[in-house]
């Protein structure tokens, strides 16, 4: 079973996607969107770089990742907290 990393931080999630980390799943609870990624050493290193201001990412790629996540956040979907919305591939348990 793969470890999972989840974040409600829009900017961190955008950075991870722009850095090549695949968004595996997301779900909405009310107005909050939670993004799920596979938790690896690479993702932990990127998170560390992000929070210590040592992160480097292509600004155009980062902007596109933000647009994609905004699309998810603002999508016209059922916001029932018991309903899970998936993106890309199915989340492996």
Give your account of this protein's structure:
This protein has 93 residues and is α+β, with helices and mostly antiparallel strands. It is built from three helices and four strands. Strands 1-3-2-4 form a four-stranded antiparallel β-sheet, with helices on one face. Strand 2 (25-29) and strand 3 (32-38) form a beta hairpin. It is globular, with a radius of gyration of 13 Å. Mean pLDDT is 84; it is low at 78-93.
Q: On the 0-100 scale, what is the average pLDDT?
A: 84
What is the 3D shape?
globular
- Number of continuous helical runs: 3
- What percent of residues are in strands? 15-25%
For the secondary structure, the number of strands is 4
Termini separation: 6 Å
* Low-confidence blocks of residues: 78-93
What kind of sheet is the major sheet? Answer: 4 strands, antiparallel
Order of helices and strands: EHEEHHE
Strand order of the largest sheet: 1-3-2-4
Helix content: 25-40%
Secondary structure class reads alpha+beta
Mind telling me the C-alpha Rg?
13 Å
């Amino acid at each position: 079973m793969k470890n999972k990393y989840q974040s409600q931080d829009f900017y961190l999630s955008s950075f991870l996607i722009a850095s090549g980390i695949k968004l595996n799943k997301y779900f909405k609870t009310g107005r909050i969107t939670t993004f799920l990624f596979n938790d690896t050493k690479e993702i932990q290193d990127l998170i560390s770089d992000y929070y210590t201001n040592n992160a480097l990412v292509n600004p155009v790629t980062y902007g596109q990742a933000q647009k994609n996540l905004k699309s998810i956040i603002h999508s016209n979907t059922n916001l029932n907290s018991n309903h899970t919305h998936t993106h890309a591939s199915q989340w492996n348990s």
